[in-house]
Amino acid sequence: MAPTRGYTLTWLGHGTFHLVTRDGRVVLLDPWVEGNPACPNEHKSFEKIDVITISHGHGDHMADAVTLGLKFKPTIVCNYEIHLFLQKKGVTTTSPMNKGGTQEAGGVRFTMVHAVHSSGIEDGGQVTYGGEPCGFVVTLEDGTRIYHAGDTGVHSDMALIGEIYRPDVALLPIGDHFTMSPREAAYAARMLGARVIVPAHHGTFPVLSGTPDALKAELKTLGVAAEVVPLRPGEALS
Ligand SMILES: [Zn+2]
């Protein structure tokens, strides 16, 4: 299947996305695969991974970082504290950064941006400080920009993200309870100005009750013209 946009972006359920770029680079955003009840089994194994990004320290966003990091030796783009944690676990391919900065990995550019959430890392019954949560603006070889919001509430920095980076596609959590609901996500979409919104972080568990249809209704109420593209886990944006 030939990707129409020069890339293939597959939702693996929850906050996890698998991106294959035009030049064949494989990027895994928020590696939660093995224990992810929404991830189809046929998407749980990989031939290669060039880059992993981690938005924050919660297990449902980085539980497979150590396993996949040791196996594929991808560049792991994350905050400094998660980098220290992964180094302690023997993962040597981390490339830490902080908000406002951009780094290139595997021919793709990653800009770390603000998110409103928490980031503690649970490890052996203890909580390790995981730095600040973040999102990423991913700029592909052809200039396409994909904003992966991570887990976040709506916040006014999204207007700056929209103004500075002009994302083409925004991957937004809509599940409610731990992140934005569709109502807040519609305000986020208005600030971001992205043409395409892919809903994430919904439906994994009953408590994540926000739906793409509710997001569409909220966008209509606000008069935001963004197109909502609801994917099923395992389905790709095309
Ligand atoms: Zn979280």
From TrEMBL:
GO terms for molecular function: hydrolase activity. Keywords: Hydrolase. It comes from the Bacteria. Residues 14-201 form the Metallo-beta-lactamase domain. InterPro entries: Metallo-B-lactamas (IPR001279), RibonucZ/Hydroxyglut_hydro (IPR036866), UPF0173 (IPR022877), UPF0173_UPF0282_UlaG_hydrolase (IPR050114). Signal peptide: none annotated. Pfam families: Lactamase_B_2. Belongs to the UPF0173 family. This is UPF0173 metal-dependent hydrolase E6K78_08495. It comes from Eiseniibacteriota bacterium.
